[in-house]
Amino acid sequence: MITLSQIDKRFGSNKVLNKIDLTIKEGSVTALIGPSGSGKSTLLRCINLLEIPQAGNLRIGNEEISFSASGRPAKKDIRRICQQTGMVFQNFQLFPHLTVIENITEGLITVQRWTKSKAVKRAEELLHKVGMQHKRDAWPATLSGGQQQRVAIARALAPSPKVLLCDEPTSALDPELSLEVVAVLRQLANEGTTMLMATHDLRLAANIANNVVFLDGGEIIESGTSQGIFTQAKKARTQSFISTLT
Ligand code: ADP
Ligand code: MG
């Protein structure tokens, strides 16, 4: 369903991703683990095209795009791909000047051109799913971090993306608040939401993910089922990194 082939990303002379090949099956959850600076965020950003790779090919469902060092793809091609994805950030990034429900309806109305009533109906459905319907008209600043992240997840899912990309969705939260976010992500996983998440959180990586990809120095060092990677990683580098996770 999602295939990256030979993706390269450089910032100036700094090569951050090197020939990344990755396949994500529909309905699966993949955890992206690796040390700080290994390229996890950049890899997620290369899938929703917040960053444009210099080489390789990306396919999401039936949409495909190729990259080269000689130029950026056309805006309409970038839009076509990024609309297939939803992104959840470490720091939530809700719009502070919009209420909870407006945070969700905004993109549906302005980007997807939905009518307001259809957008509100969809937003209410999603708020219910993440257990935030009671905060429908609240301002983001009045919510706990866990509540903000649940709204951010609802917002990302609103246009029914093919894949939910999560960049360390629990790492800005203390352990208690991160539990409620883990519970929402687990429920989404059980419902068959396709997800790729960068995380240092063992509850996400070991308990929710089907597959684990270990990234180090911009290269995929090892990947496999989460059971396989966590209990019998083949590479010493993977084993030693896993022992640092909490
Ligand atoms: P991770 O998420 O695994 O911590 P990142 O993808 O954030 O890693 O960063 C990987 C490398 O890319 C780091 O060396 C970082 O400094 C560099 N990098 C990331 N984003 C940019 C950027 N916008 N401009 C320049 N360098 C960047
Ligand atoms: Mg990161």
Automatic annotation (TrEMBL):
Give the record's membrane topology.
Answer: Peripheral membrane protein
One GO cellular component term noted in the UniProt record for this chain? plasma membrane
Major subcellular location class: membrane
Single GO MF descriptor? ABC-type amino acid transporter activity
User: Residue ranges of the ABC transporter domain?
Assistant: 2-242
Q: Does the keyword Transport apply?
A: yes
**Which key words are in the record?**
ATP-binding, Cell membrane, Membrane, Nucleotide-binding, Transport
Note the PANTHER family from the entry.
AMINO ACID IMPORT ATP-BINDING PROTEIN, L-CYSTINE IMPORT ATP-BINDING PROTEIN TCYN
Q: Which family does it belong to?
A: Belongs to the ABC transporter superfamily.
**Name by which UniProt lists this protein:** ATP-binding protein
Instruction: Tell me which species this is from.
Output: Rahnella sikkimica
High-level lineage: Bacteria, Pseudomonadati, Pseudomonadota, Gammaproteobacteria, Enterobacterales
